[in-house]
Amino acid sequence: MQRPVLELKDVHVRHAIKGQSLLGKETVFALTGASLSVSAGETVGIVGESGCGKSTLAKTIVGLQKPSEGEIFFNGSSLWEMSAANRRTEFGRNVGMIFQDPSTALNRRMPIRRILRDPLDVHGIGDGGSRVQRVRELMELVGLPESAADALPTQLSGGQRQRVAIGRALALGPSLLVADEPTSALDVSVRAQILNLLLRLQKEMNLAMIFISHDIQTVRRMSDRIATMYLGRIVEQVPSALTPEGVAHPYTTALFSATPSILDEINPISLDGPVPSAVRPPSGCPFRTRCWKASSACAEAMPPLRVLSQEPLHTLRCFHPMDSDGATGAPLSS
Ligand SMILES: Nc1ncnc2c1ncn2[C@@H]1O[C@H](COP(=O)(O)OP(=O)(O)OP(=O)(O)O)[C@@H](O)[C@H]1O
C-alpha cells in the first residue's frame, strides 16, 4: 500500500480564550482527536458548518498551528520532531496553501511576476534566468495572460487573483496542496473555472490535496473522500462516490439534504437549535443536541471509531447510523 503523504494521528488543538492564556480555566476545543491521511493523487474534502474547525485543521496541516496533542507525519517524518529549519525548508517547499480570499492573501503592492517569483527567491531555487522562466510557466499553468505579469493584484479580477494564489502555491512543485474555501469569496460565474483548474492541476501533478468547503456538493465533486466535521471532531469519512443514501452519519445526511444536487432524491432534514459552544462542548457525541436519532448512550461517551469499509475508506463515529434502520428520510420528532 502507498505511504500517505500526510497523516494526522489523534490531533487536538485548543485555543486560549481571547485575553487569557492556555493555562486559563477555559479553552476553545477547536480540533479534537482528528485522524486523517491523504496519499499522492488523492483529494480528501473537509466539510462542516462555520466554526467546526476546518480552518484550524488546515492551519495545523500546513504547520501554521502547533497541535496541543497528537502527531502529524509528512512522508513518514514527524512534523514537530523536525528541526524548525527543516520544517521551513523541506516541509515548506512541499506544501502549498490556497486561502479563501485572494484579495487579502496577496501583497497588494507587488506585481504578479514578483508574487510568483517570491517563493523561489525565499527558498533560493535556481538562478535569475530560471526563475523568470518558472514565472512564465506558472502563469501559463494557471491560465493567466502574459499581460498580467506587471499588474498589481488590485488590477485583476477576483478569479484572476485566485489563479495567482494557485500559481504561488504551486511555485515550488509541492506534493501536498491545501485549499481552504478557495471559491467562497468569488463570483458564482468564475467558481466553476477555478474548481476545474484545481481538479486538472491536482491530476496532472499527482498532488495529495485537502479541499475545504462548507458546501458538501462542491466537496463531493472535488474529492475522493469526504471528511465531515462537527464541533472540532471528524465524525465520518465517506467515499465521494457513494450516493447520499450511502452515508451513515445523521449529520452528513443533513448536510446533503440541505444542498441536494439534481441527481439526489433526499427528504429535507432541518436541524433544530444552534451549534453548541466549542468552549463547553456537550458530553459524548457533540452532535447529539441536534440529532433526531440521539439516545441517552450518546450523552455518555463519544462513539468509538468504526471502520465500515477499508477500501475505499469509510469510517464513522455514531451509535445510531442511518443504515441501522434504513431511514434516510424525515427526522423523528425529538
Ligand atoms: N486564534 C483563535 N483563538 C481563539 N479561538 C479560535 C481561534 N481560531 C479559531 N478559534 C475558534 O475555534 C473554533 C474553530 O474555528 P475555525 O476557524 O477553525 O472554524 P471554521 O470551520 O474554519 O469556521 P469558518 O468556516 O467560519 O471559517 C471556533 O469556535 C473559533 O471561534
Can you put this structure into words, describing what you see?
The chain is α/β, with parallel strands linked by helices and 334 residues long. The chain has helices spanning 54-61, 84-94, 102-105, 112-122, 128-141, 158-170, 188-204, 216-222, 250-258, 296-300, and strands spanning 6-16, 27-38, 43-47, 69-74, 77-78, 95-98, 176-180, 208-213, 225-230, 233-239, 306-309, 314-316. An eight-stranded mixed sheet has the order 6-7-8-3-9-10-12-11, sandwiched between helices. The chain has a four-stranded antiparallel sheet with strand order 2-1-4-5, with helices on one face. Helices cover 30% and strands 21% of the residues. The protein has ten helices and twelve strands. Mean pLDDT is 92; it is low at 324-334. The chain binds adenosine-5'-triphosphate. The site of adenosine-5'-triphosphate has 13 residues, from strand 2 and helix 1. Belongs to the ABC transporter superfamily. InterPro entries: AAA+_ATPase, ABC_transp_ATP-bind, ABC_transporter-like_ATP-bd, ABC_transporter-like_CS, Oligopep_ABC_C, P-loop_NTPase. This is Peptide ABC transporter ATP-binding protein. Residues 6-256 form the ABC transporter domain.
Nutshell version of this structure?
It comes from Arthrobacter psychrolactophilus. The protein is of the alpha/beta class. 30% of the residues lie in helices and 21% in strands.
